[in-house]
Design goal:
This protein has 14 helices and 20 strands. It has 473 residues and is an alpha/beta fold.
Length: 473
């Protein structure tokens, strides 16, 4: 039996993937998608993908998808950690407007989610997610999904009796296949997939580690809790340490990219790909001491807020590279627009498909908020660092210290040259804009604090604790 157009994607995705999507928007026609697949790859920086200029072969599947649709070059996440950013992705509202900012808040039922809108339009709504910060039922991010499966991302290490995370991408995909096969065959679907594989703990398979990771004799293990300790103690890592971390990160990206390639091949074999809208993005990035720390959650700098966004499928012309300033808040309005489903509620985001339909986006401000794991005077405080951006001018506020920082990321993408003294008028205007935004925050719906079992899981994910561990690499 001859292989399908996509059966060999894991081995040769750069050759096979274009065939898959040849009819998926390549002509820019007006046909609407029948199905939607929204994929969130936790902790994924765009600059580690080939389609965004990375020099290593980490992402052939995603690169091919980008070539067959639209790639956005300047995408800002709404928050630097998982829970509030995904609540934004699934509602089209900023954290201040949906209220989900900490582990003691939940998404209110008064907000109509993307899943609820698409369910109302007749789609089967299915989700497979891979972290407590999305899947725990008390956060209520499963609103509107007919099936909402949480694949637990932690297991107990028999040597230390502590929880550690592991790569579950193949389990996520297997579960997604099961859900798709159980739905009525003629029913269109919305499938939301969340993958935790790129997030620490770094545990790539040996074949990926051999290909992407160079020799290393340092003390790092790639474990989250060890890196939390590095962050909390303000330790400086040597370049060899940072190179090893980035290599392990690349290995994890390529391993997951191959998992995605095989899944997309499976969709193609079942004739489910050509009329499907694919949207791939991330909730936040990762810091490799660009501003003196590691991991994520504590700042609003670009290494944490800049994320990828790829859109391909019916109605999306191939080869679009779009430099407009956009946000994770735009995901829900864009999917609804492409599916022809009117939104039943106002949303903060915009339908980005106007950009390839001959239109432009109105001038607007972009926001980042809802930090986590910051420490002030020895105690943990959250939601104290915020960002407002107008064009390429970006203002940071640390509410605990009252400090403002102004950058122009057009000429200073690394945010190292503070401009507040030189651009006092711009700082004042953006400060006033941020104050108006803060004044419009909704009262959050609160829930009980995490249980001891949940705290143990959160500690393994990097939310509390800084245990040093000596492990074999």
């Amino acid at each position: 039996m001859l292989p399908t157009r996509f059966a060999r994607v894991a081995a040769l995705p750069w050759l096979v993937f274009p065939a898959l999507l040849a009819g998926c928007g390549g002509g820019g026609g007006s046909d609407r998608p029948r199905n939607v697949v929204l994929i969130s790859i936790d902790t994924l920086r765009p600059d580690h993908l080939g389609c965004y200029g990375h020099g290593r072969d980490t992402s052939p599947t995603l690169d091919a998808l980008a070539a067959r649709g639209a790639r956005f070059t300047d995408v800002t996440a709404a928050a630097p950690w998982t829970l509030p950013s995904h609540a934004t992705m699934l509602t089209g509202l900023y954290p201040s407007h949906h209220g989900v900012k900490t582990h003691e808040t939940r998404l209110s039922e008064r907000f109509v989610t993307l899943a609820e809108e698409l369910k109302g339009a007749g789609l089967a709504t299915l989700a497979v997610v891979n972290t407590h910060n999305v899947g725990a039922p008390q956060f209520q991010l499963g609103q509107g999904f007919d099936q909402f499966r949480y694949i637990v991302e932690t297991e107990e290490d028999p040597r230390t009796m502590q929880l550690k995370t592991f790569n579950s991408g193949e389990v996520v995909v297997a579960t997604a296949k099961e859900l798709l096969e159980k739905r009525p065959e003629d029913q269109p679907f919305f499938l939301f997939l969340h993958f935790y594989d790129v997030h620490t703990d770094f545990t790539p398979k040996p074949e990926y580690r051999e290909k992407y990771v160079g020799p290393y004799s340092g003390r790092l293990t790639g474990r989250t809790m060890q890196l939390v300790g590095v962050r909390n103690r303000g330790e400086h890592l040597e370049e060899a340490d940072l190179t090893w971390l980035r290599d392990m990160y690349d290995a994890e990206i390529r391993q997951l990219d191959d998992v995605l390639g095989r899944f997309l091949g499976w969709l193609d074999e079942r004739d489910l790909a050509d009329d499907t809208l694919f949207v791939i993005t991330s909730d936040h990035g990762e810091e490799f001491q660009e501003h003196g720390s590691v991991l994520h959650g504590t700042t609003q700098y670009q290494e944490l807020l800049k994320v990828p966004l790829l859109v391909a499928g019916p109605g999306v012309p191939a080869g679009q590279v779009l430099d407009a300033h956009v946000s994770g808040v735009d995901v829900t309005p864009t999917v609804l627009g492409l599916m022809g489903v009117p939104s039943s509620q106002p949303r903060d985001g915009l339908d980005l498909s106007v950009l390839w339909r001959g239109g432009t986006l109105p001038e607007r401000l972009l926001y980042g908020e809802a930090d986590h794991n910051n420490k002030v005077d020895g105690r943990e405080v959250n939601d104290i660092k915020q960002m407002v951006r107008r064009g390429t001018e970006k203002l940071h506020l640390d509410r605990s210290s009252g400090r403002y920082e102004l950058y122009d990321i057009a000429g200073d993408p690394g945010e190292h040259s503070e401009l507040g003294a030189q651009r006092a008028a711009a700082l004042a205007e953006l400060r006033a804009d941020l104050e108006r935004f803060q004044a419009g925050a909704v009262a959050p719906e609160t829930i009980a604090a995490p249980t001891p079992e949940e705290r143990a899981r959160l500690k393994a994910l990097g939310y509390g604790g800084d245990d040093e561990e000596d492990e074999e690499r």
